[in-house]
Amino acid sequence: MDNTIVATHDTHAEEHHHSLPQLRHHFETEQQQREAGTFGMWLFLLTEIMFFGGLFFAYLLYRNWYNPAFVAASNQLSIPMGTVNTAILISSGFFMALGVWAAEVRKQGLLVLFLLLTTLFGCLFLGVKYFEYKEKWEKHHIPGANFDISEFVNPPLNPTTHKPIEEPLSPDMAKKTQVFFSLYFVMTGMHALHMIIGIVLLGWLTWRANRGEFTEGYVAPIENFGLYWHFVDIVWIFLFPLLYLINRHPGT
Amino acid sequence: MSSQYHDPANVNNPEHAEHHIVGPGTYIAIYVTLLVFTGITVGAAFIDLGVLNPIIAVGIACIKATIVILFFMHVIYQSKLIKMTVGAGFFTFLILLTMTLTDYISRAWGRW
Fold first, then answer.
1. I need a surface site. Which of A237, B2, B18, B76 has the fewest CB within 10 A?
2. pLDDT in tens, A133-152
3. How many pairs of residues across A and B have Cβ atoms under 8 Å apart?
4. What pLDDT was estimated at residue A252?
5. Residue B31 lies inside a defined structural domain of this protein
6. Mean pLDDT throughout B78-82?
7. Residue of chain A with shortest Cα separation from B103
């Protein structure tokens, strides 16, 4: 990848170093190309922060306006499922990080293995999410014409104390639980969509890694995909406490 | 053009960051830390701390996100350019959040 600009100057670095076939001619060094790629990836991720940021702001505002509805609706979510899913997603990110390491030290078998594990844990996360969504569907807790507020107006009784397990809401406030569930489905749904896109990309990267494309010194696609995958992790790190752990001391 | 201005290998550049390969040991330590913080945030949610509950939950989430950004996303090993980009992005987001909130709070004054 010689070009006239590099050739007219001190090419000290190139003397010891055979440059990668992936080095584009408009970059002077591999390191410059790599940093430009990382920079571009971060700019993309910043637009993603603004995108999810708008949803987080909507959540913040409505949570303050309709706090009792948010508390009651949040207690419908399963903490064990949310916690397990958080651990699953952190594991997926951990294997992605190990994948970047495997690519850097040029271990092709390990790289493919770690990418497959990343994919597996990503799919497990979506599997748990499916069962959570299914429960909401069965209980008519999906906002819209068939939304059922009865459980929030007349909460079921605790069998031992014979008191409602939840603070009963007025019908007006109970309707606002739809705001919570709307945000819940939009935020976790957009997060899940990012994961589905990520899993598709992972399949493509695994196929290329299996051909040895990323273990000859060119690791940028693995590294930049890793940034995306960790970003999706970070979104969940905030979603989990905000949606699942609002207020766990109902008036029993 | 002297070599002072043309630096193809990017070695004289003060922003030059030596490429750093993070090993599995660091990743395992980060992984365990993240799982421990997940446990703490779930535990803290069951203790009644009043207004402190959401503050602690968001605080722990911020700590976890910072750890992920610095180590899993390698920002701590990157050049100043990347660090500034990431910092500026989050800072801009906080500005947008704060200024939008001041608007909503002041419009519904007294009706909170």
1. B2
2. 999 999 999 999 999 999 89
3. 139
4. 38
5. yes
6. 90
7. A61
ipTM of the complex: 0.86
Contact B9 A43 (CB under 8 A): no
Which amino acid does the sequence have at B25? G
Per-position DSSP letters for chain A, written without gaps between them = ---HHHHTS--HHHHT-PPPTT--TT-SSHHHHHHHHHHHHHHHHHHHHHHHHHHHHHHHHHHHHTHHHHHHHHTTS-HHHHHHHHHHHHHHHHHHHHHHHHHHTT-HHHHHHHHHHHHHHHHHHHHHHHHHHHHHHHTT-SSSTT---HHHHSPPBPTTT-SBSS----HHHHHTHHHHHHHHHHHHHHHHHHHHHHHHHHHHHHHHHHTTTTSSS--HHHHHHHHHHHHHHHHHHHHHHHHH-S------
Number of domains chain B is built from: 1
Q: Is residue B45 part of a domain?
A: yes
Confirm if B67 and B34 have CB atoms less than 8 A apart. Answer: yes
Round to whole Å and give the CA distance between A242 and B53.
11
Delineate the domains of chain A, giving CATH numbers in brackets: 33-244 (1.20.120.80)
Which residue is closest to B24 within chain A, CA to CA?
A: A98
Q: What pLDDT, in 10s, does the model give residues B84-108?
A: 999 999 999 999 999 999 998 888 7
The residue range of the domain holding B43 is: 18-77
CA distance A135 to A139: 6
Estimate to the nearest angstrom the gap between the alpha carbon of A132 and the chain centroid.
Answer: 17
Contacts of B49 in chain A (CB under 8 A): none
Given B45, B68, B82, which is nearest A248 (Cβ)? Answer: B45
Whether residue B48 and residue A11 make contact (CB cut-off 8 A), yes or no, is no
Residues with Cβ within 8 Å of residue A98, at least 6 apart in sequence: A110, A114, B24, B27
Cα–Cα separations (whole angstroms), residue B69 to A137, A208, A224, B13, B72: 35, 26, 13, 24, 6
- Rounded CA separation A142/A185 (Å): 8
- Span between the terminal Cα atoms of chain B, in Å: 64
